[in-house]
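Hello Y.,

Per our agreement to keep a running log of every chain we model this quarter, I'm adding this entry. I've kept the format consistent with earlier entries: sequence first, then predicted structure.
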Amino acid sequence: MIQKDELRKILKSALREKFTQSSPDEIRSLSLAALENLVTIPPLRTAKMIMLYIELPCEFPITPFFVPLLNHPARRVVIPWCDGNRLRLFRLASSDEVEGQDDFRKICFERLAPGAFGIQEPKESFRLRSEFLIEPQQLDLVIMPGLGFDTACRRLGRGKGYYDRFVTTLRSGVPLAGVCFDEQIIETVPTEPHDRPLDYVVTPTRVCCAKLDLYG
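Predicted structure for the entry above:
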């Protein structure tokens, strides 16, 4: 079996190639197709507090999900940011604040700035404001990035361990989901004892859950 570090190199190369060979419109179309599949998973029907993420360059584009997912009463979207070796949570937007893309852009401009690894994260002036602070136990659904996944919903991250540490702080039973291109689904992700499989993996063409390949 190929080891994790070698798989990471292969998948990073495949992602760079994907973005090189695809137009922005094609990438956005794939993102929206994945969103259509994501909204079919049962936890999303009732989730009020959803953790998403802001993608890195050459990472599956999830930011087109934000506004559609906020089209739901009393829903809040939360993003993580790096604080030392852990992830902390920030309430980015609520459904009562966002009526469309322009509202969301304004919120991002006001509340976010480039931080660790060049990713947008909360501005210093917002980080200590209690109305924006979220604890992991408040989350109803976690959607996380990954370099690779398999149909058993095992996940290969970037090797920093941020999400491995983070999931141990969630309350029991909170669903975990990953979103990716079809090319990121591999035969088997090698695992270690601390690796927790996700509950769902969603691509533009299929939805996998930990015990059953639902589509595809």
